[in-house]
Amino acid sequence: MFTGTALSLDIKTVEEYLDVKTVREASTDIGGKMDTEVAIIGAGPVGMAAAAFLHRAGIAVRVFEANPDRAGQSRATTIHPRTLELFDSIPDERGSLAARMVAAGNPVPATHFAALPNRLDYRGLDTSFPFVLLLPQPETERLLAEYLAGQGVVVEPRWKLAGLTQDEQGVTIVSETGDTRRAGYVIGADGAHSATRHALGLGFPGTPASTMGFLADVKLERPPAQPHNWDCERGSYSALPLPGGIYRIFGHEPGDTGLTPEEAARRQAQIPDEAELRATLNRLADDDFGLTEVIWASRTGDATRHAEQYRVGRVFLAGDAAHVHLPAGGQGLNVGVQDAANLAWKLAAEVRGRAPRRIIDGPQSYDAERRPIAARLAANTLAQAALMVTFTPGGKALRDLMSDLIGRNGDTADELRGWLSGLDVSYAEDGSLAGRRVPNLPLADGRTLHRALRPDRCTLVVFGTTVAEGENVVRSTRDWHDLAAVLVRPDGYAAEVWTPGEEIKAR
Ligand SMILES: Cc1cc2nc3c(=O)[nH]c(=O)nc-3n(C[C@H](O)[C@H](O)[C@H](O)COP(=O)(O)OP(=O)(O)OC[C@H]3O[C@@H](n4cnc5c(N)ncnc54)[C@H](O)[C@@H]3O)c2cc1C
């Protein structure tokens, strides 16, 4: 239903705004002195997502990976709706990379906060992906790697960054074997112990681990009746179904808490084997749930840190290189992919020399928008850690209270759902609409907005009777906040909004 009224639309002005004019196609001519326009250090999920978004935006990109064999590192299992929306903007023969992930994973309707019994139901969310996708990280990485290979994006294996230097024209990266490469810009997506971050001399302030839980992907003959179980005396255990009849089990015993950093480091090195996992489950539940096979096991701590800057000159940090925290609520990979999407279009514009100042080092820069998100992520996961491992009567009372609030499905549930799903993450100031995610609006041409977004330029969405034509203009058949038009960034957030009657011109 249209409610927007006629609007005078000066499309020329809009196309000039944020410089949405057609840009030249993918450049392979990057001048004899450069090996690539953007070098990405690390072929984890964040590095590969950044490579995919940048390549889509027509930027020559090359990925350097120290360890060519990441198989067996199960780690993240959870993909949230906002991440799927971002992957939905990457087309492939199945429709999109997101469609491929959904086909490979296990969509479930709800997720947990702090392993509380009452869960956050995603079914009513305004998204094409109103569910949590359980997909082991190696699968996510395989699909990303296949996509990049199909696009001809080179991932150089066994290339470990040892150092870098930068000047006004670019960055020289050096491997541990002394091999050097030259790039216009570098993204360090090389994980928690990031060599890029070290080379930049950036601090990684935060708090060390004080808890160290168990975590494993196993086969269970008779999984527990409830996914999340918590006992003040014994501790906690959870079991979540992954594809292929596998369960992700995780939990804490009271002895795993209140550790010194040295104790935490010692405990982290003690990877539990099948016998120990059985013994742990028996201590926690008087049952090993018919555990027959351990596919992968690890320990997880609550060390929480984030880099003091996300950009130094021509070098950026993204994903675990920029922030680490307890993997609670499945957020690390998701927030990292969202870093990559936020950075890619801005960096693409900068590489092409058409980025306005405000997205380079102003209020809409990558650093300005994403570092506050890491601060929220840190607070959110520390709060979950407190709820998960405070094995006292007070801790139990707090869990009961929070679980009850979530179960009421009111503001608390909405707030947590909006954050965990990624859908309410916003860069808006003072409650304005500019900076908010724009939902997947249905378009008059039969497409939906997220698949219509361009990777390298903004898209103007008009509502109602506004008359507009142009390559970068689409018409929505659904209202959004009674607006006449919204200029949508490549990462799906509103850049500018216009109300009915307002003249569209650059501000
Ligand atoms: C036990 C565990 C469980 C987790 N569970 C979840 C979960 O359920 N949900 C969730 O969202 N997140 C989870 N996480 C977090 C998630 O795995 C990470 O957030 C995610 O892997 C981050 O991706 P990344 O690409 O930033 O870094 P990484 O995945 O660490 O990838 C970094 C890459 O850089 C490479 N590299 C490192 N140094 C160099 C160098 N010097 N030169 C070149 N390459 C280099 C590495 O080999 C690696 O391939 C978990 C993490 C752990 C440890």
UniProtKB/TrEMBL annotation:
Where, by residue number, does the polypeptide cross the bilayer? none
Query: Keywords, A to Z?
Result: FAD, Flavoprotein, Monooxygenase, Oxidoreductase
Single GO molecular function: oxidoreductase activity, acting on paired donors, with incorporation or reduction of molecular oxygen, NAD(P)H as one donor, and incorporation of one atom of oxygen
Residues forming the FAD-binding domain are 35-380
The record's Pfam families line, in alphabetical order, gives: FAD_binding_3 (PF01494)
Cofactor(s) essential for the protein: FAD
Per the record's keyword annotation, is Transcription regulation included, yes or no?
A: no
InterPro entries attached to this UniProt entry: FAD-bd, FAD/NAD-bd_sf, RIFMO-like
> So which domain of life are we looking at?
Bacteria
Name it: FAD-dependent monooxygenase
Q: What's the source species for this entry?
A: Amycolatopsis dendrobii
